[in-house]
């Protein structure tokens, strides 16, 4: 059902995007299936053509140039490095022919570079200082060996990216009756529909290549629109509609002006993504605890982790271009691997969120990711800093570079344990504070309540803390055979469940993932008194099972809760016995008072007779 925004906010516009229904759903389904089949075919062609050896041009000589053949962009060959060729050197002539005469055509440049194996190519270059130099480079297959290996692995990485994206699109397509999954399922398919360079040459169909390129361009506006209304399709403000309108205008501009789109699309994509993510963060801060908040948290985590990976990947590409040499191909490969990780993070975060799968594991995932990321950065900084300090102190004392390297590794190894301890505890306090409160706060609370409160109040405090700490839908406290407390469900449901449950004899957590009411049962054992009772835990709001951290926290609180329950029960029994004795004593005193009053009355009446 479409909700319409009030006149005060934005009249005549729906508050939520309409989901595909009826004929629209049929058209969407047919279009998605056709595009999916096309993308699968293009992915197969990309992998097939990418596995074939390619004809290199500049790289045969250990260098590479920009598309216009005006400047050197990569220096990887040992011969080129030895001759002092640098990135950004201007190319004046190739084989004695001025580049102005050769032109910027790719085929013309390839003909100018054509030489047999072992032949020499004469290059005339001009460095940044204006000095003109002539270099003689030998064509050698050794110059392209690392490139070919890296290219082959790059094809495999691209294939994995495409497969992961298409799998995510297929899963989201199953929820196509919801607006956001429908938008992102289409965006994911279109994002990988473009052919590679080798596939483009093999297809040799300009109209087909242009059509696929246009479809590929549509993936970005769809992705931004999906993030703008994530996760429920709700607009809710003028700002959201303004951004959506700008996205539509940008899409129209992109489709009608391809050349201009190349120059502005990157900036536009960054701006629209930033606006969409900013609105998502604002919505997250206003959301009450619940499933929708957890969905947004997973989405933000995936985008943030993927964004960090993309920045690292881009940094590796820039570093590869500047460093050159043999390290160039290793850095390029590392950039591809990190880019693959970025895809997994972004697509995985959105997929988990929209499929509502294990939403309440977000805090644990964020905590561990931040902890390991911070630990890695800290260790790298310690290693680099220590190595540099040793170099400054003097390599003569440490055996040249080997001593500095060994010292840096030793310092990093010595700091692993304390850094891991500190970073892990910081991440837990920052992202899993609810579990820390359960682990450390509940034992202190029951330690105070057991001396003054009754069993009913103690049970209520324990259940409240458990529900808040692990975000369970409901819970119950069983003492002996009696239900002392139940939160989130009526006691009758607990009684019906108990009638069919046979308590196990072990002292470990009793877990049954298939149980819809109480999948986790925590035994409460007190030293010297045996089994006191059970803490019965219901599932999470999304129906998923509890993670390792939650189960460990429940196991940790079992002993203090059991001791508190046992002490309260013993104290209440003792107090009840004392009250019974006092009541009996009071009754006897009352009887004595009555008897004494009768005797006194009789004696006062005796003289009158």
TrEMBL record:
Source organism superkingdom: Bacteria
Entries under InterPro entries matching the protein: PDZ_sf (IPR036034)
Gene3D superfamilies named among the record's database cross-references: 2.30.42.10
TM spans (from-to): 21-48, 153-173, 180-199, 211-230, 237-253, 259-278, 298-321, 333-354, 366-385, 397-419
Transmembrane helix is among the record's keywords: yes
UniProt entry keywords in alphabetical sequence: Membrane, Transmembrane, Transmembrane helix
Keyword Transmembrane helix among record annotations: yes
Protein's name according to its UniProt entry: PDZ domain-containing protein
Organism taxonomic ancestry: Bacteria, Pseudomonadati, Pseudomonadota, Alphaproteobacteria, Sphingomonadales
């Amino acid at each position: 059902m479409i909700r319409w925004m009030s006149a005060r906010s934005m009249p005549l516009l729906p508050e939520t995007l309409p989901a595909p229904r009826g004929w629209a759903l049929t058209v969407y389904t047919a279009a998605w299936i056709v595009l999916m089949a096309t993308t699968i075919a293009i992915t197969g062609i990309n992998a097939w053509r990418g596995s074939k050896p390619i004809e290199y041009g500049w790289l045969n000589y250990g260098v590479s140039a920009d598309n216009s053949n005006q400047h050197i962009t990569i220096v990887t060959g040992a011969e080129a490095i030895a001759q002092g060729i640098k990135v950004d050197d201007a190319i004046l002539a190739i084989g004695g022919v001025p580049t102005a005469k050769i032109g910027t055509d790719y085929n013309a440049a390839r003909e100018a570079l054509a030489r047999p194996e072992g032949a020499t190519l004469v290059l005339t270059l001009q460095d940044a200082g204006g000095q003109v130099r002539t270099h003689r480079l030998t064509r050698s297959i050794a110059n392209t060996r690392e490139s070919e290996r890296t290219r082959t692995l790059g094809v495999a990485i691209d294939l994995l990216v495409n497969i992961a994206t298409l799998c995510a699109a297929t899963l989201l397509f199953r929820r196509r009756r919801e607006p956001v999954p429908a938008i992102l399922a289409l965006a994911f398919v279109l994002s990988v529909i473009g052919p590679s360079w080798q596939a483009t040459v093999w297809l040799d169909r300009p109209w087909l290549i242009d059509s696929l390129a246009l479809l590929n361009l549509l993936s970005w506006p769809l992705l931004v629109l999906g993030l703008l209304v994530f996760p429920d399709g709700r607009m809710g403000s003028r700002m959201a509609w303004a951004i959506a309108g700008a996205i539509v205008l940008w899409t129209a501009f992109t489709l009608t002006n391809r050349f201009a789109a190349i120059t502005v699309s990157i900036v536009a994509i960054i701006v629209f993504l930033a606006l969409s993510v900013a609105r998502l963060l604002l919505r997250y801060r206003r959301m009450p605890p619940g499933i929708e908040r957890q969905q947004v948290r997973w989405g933000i985590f995936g985008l943030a982790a993927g964004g960090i990976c993309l920045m690292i990947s881009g940094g590796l590409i820039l570093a590869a271009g500047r460093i050159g040499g043999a390290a160039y191909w290793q850095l390029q490969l590392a950039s591809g691997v990190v880019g693959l990780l970025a895809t997994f993070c972004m697509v995985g975060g959105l997929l988990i969120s929209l499929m509502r799968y294990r939403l309440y594991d977000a805090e644990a995932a964020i905590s561990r990711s931040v902890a390991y990321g911070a630990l890695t950065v800290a260790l790298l900084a310690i290693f680099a800093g220590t190595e540099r300090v040793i170099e400054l102190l003097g390599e003569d004392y440490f055996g040249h570079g080997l001593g500095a390297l060994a010292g840096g590794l030793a310092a990093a190894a010595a700091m692993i344990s304390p850094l891991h301890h500190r970073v892990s505890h910081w991440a837990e306090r920052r992202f899993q504070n609810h579990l820390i409160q359960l682990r450390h706060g509940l034992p202190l609370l029951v330690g105070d309540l057991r001396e003054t409160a009754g069993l009913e109040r103690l049970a209520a405090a324990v259940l409240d803390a458990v529900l808040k700490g692990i975000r369970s839908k409901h819970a119950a406290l069983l003492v002996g055979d009696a239900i002392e407390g139940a939160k989130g469900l009526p006691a009758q449901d607990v009684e019906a469940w108990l009638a069919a449950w046979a308590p196990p004899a072990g002292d470990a957590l009793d877990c049954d993932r298939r149980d819809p009411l109480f999948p986790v049962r925590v035994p409460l054992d007190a030293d010297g008194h045996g089994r006191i009772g059970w803490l019965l835990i219901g599932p999470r709001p999304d129906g998923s099972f509890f993670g390792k951290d939650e189960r460990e926290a429940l196991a940790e609180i079992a002993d203090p809760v059991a001791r508190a329950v046992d002490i309260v029960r013993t104290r209440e029994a003792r107090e009840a016995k004392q009250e019974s004795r006092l009541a009996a004593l009071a009754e006897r005193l009352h009887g004595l008072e009555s008897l004494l009053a009768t005797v006194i009355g009789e004696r006062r009446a005796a003289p009158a007779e």
